[in-house]
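Annex B, item 7. Sequence and structure tokens for protein A, then protein B.
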Amino acid sequence: MSEAMSRTPSRIIPVDEEIFVSTDVEADGPIPGPHSMLSFASAAYTADKELIGTFSANLECLPDAKGHPLTMKWWKTEPEAWAACRVDPEDPAKALKAYVKWVEKLPGKPVFVAYPAGFDFTFMFWYMMRFVGRCPFSWSALDIKTLAFAMTGMPYRKCIKPRLPQVWLDPLPHTHVALDDALEQGALFCNMLAELRDQQKTLSELPGWRGAGLTANANAPVFGSAAAAALAEAADAESPDTGPGKDSTAHG
């Protein structure tokens, strides 16, 4: 049975402020369709790390789908997590409809966040489009691993949690239970975002820095060029129903 929790934010959140929805998926194979999403959970954070809601659900397996042999072999090494994701599994259509409604009731603009987004968003997008017909995150997902690559300068493939600065890592459990992992990676993202904001503030104080005054939710491009402005306008044309604007060359 799905479980949703919402908290009243400690401040009024503007409608254009981004809310970061950290999401974790547990599955029995690498792709949806041939394999099933067993459970998923999201933890919605403000940029200043306030948790304003969670949603979690265990799902019934898809008809005619089956577990991938390598994935099922891995699950045998995690019996507690396996048992947790098989408690009271729910019809995916029912769970995903409730989830989309939960996301759409969050304040601000929801942004899907995962580590790695390529896996989790693939499952969540497929399931939302299959069972609900829409995705409240539009066509995009924010990948924490890519953010780590940009912030640390490490090779992308080496941007794994044990190599990240320890100051980014809160003492939260990583159990392969979807809600635990969504909370953990959401806190990680917020810690990274806080450091990034500090870096941006430092840069903005440099003479001639053209990004000075840019805020977390500003629409103005950093470098102020006409081309960048046009790109920003095209990005704003993207919607959950239509996907990228007609002139976009790539999703996201």
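Protein B:
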Amino acid sequence: MSTNQDAPEAASSSPAGHPQPATNAPTRSARPPAPEPIDTRERGAPVKGEPQFSTRRLFVQFLALAAADAVEQKATFEALCATFTANNVPAVIYEDMNDPLGFGIATWSEDPGHFVGALRRALGDSGLANVQWKPEYTMLGRTYSVGYEPRLEWWLVDRPAETMLNKDWPWAVWYPLRRNGAFARLDGKEQGSILREHAMLGRAYGTSDLAHDVRLACHGLDANDNEFVIGLVGPELHPLSHLVQAMRKTRQTSEFIESMGPFFIGRAAWWNAGGAVTS
């Protein structure tokens, strides 16, 4: 008696008698869906029901250096002022509180090429041959929005420059920071609550004219993988320190900040808006 134990399996048939392909026949792979378009625009609060978008943003760089000696200190300062004026470079020069020979420089532009173009040429023309640059204090970031700004382009471009150029706010604390990965793993609602606590505290100091901030994102722009650069400026130094101390109690700082600093502390000695000298 024969059996079908070793016989090849017969192809199944449809009710009409048409053979159907075997179930293990290869199938054509589905084409993957097209990726979503990447939107790099900054977004602000709706105005008259219409969302605000902008591709404008300000890049800000902070540099630090020290004169070769006390004799060269005055010459270094004068050379920086002269070359920034001659080359139309917007800048603020700070006297370094922790280095009697040191200076800090904040400069900015919407064009990141400024820092390897006009700024580099200006520093090359200044004759600063004997200064000591301090790369550990170099910071670079870009302005950004969080989606609630009522005057989006003012926030992104004009406000940071106005803040740095305000002669009534000469004291400054500049520092970078990085959050840990745990913050990125929180859901959006919890992140928003944490950020609002931080923002409300900063706003209270600003409303009281105690401290005003320049907030910059530096993802991929920082040699040490920092995420943000913060500049705090105001009429007196103590409230800036007081704000940093108060921020330590917020949930963002106490739980999710991995590193902060180094801190540059200085007082502005010269301002240049870029063509219009304000000192």
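Comment on protein B: The radius of gyration is 29 Å.
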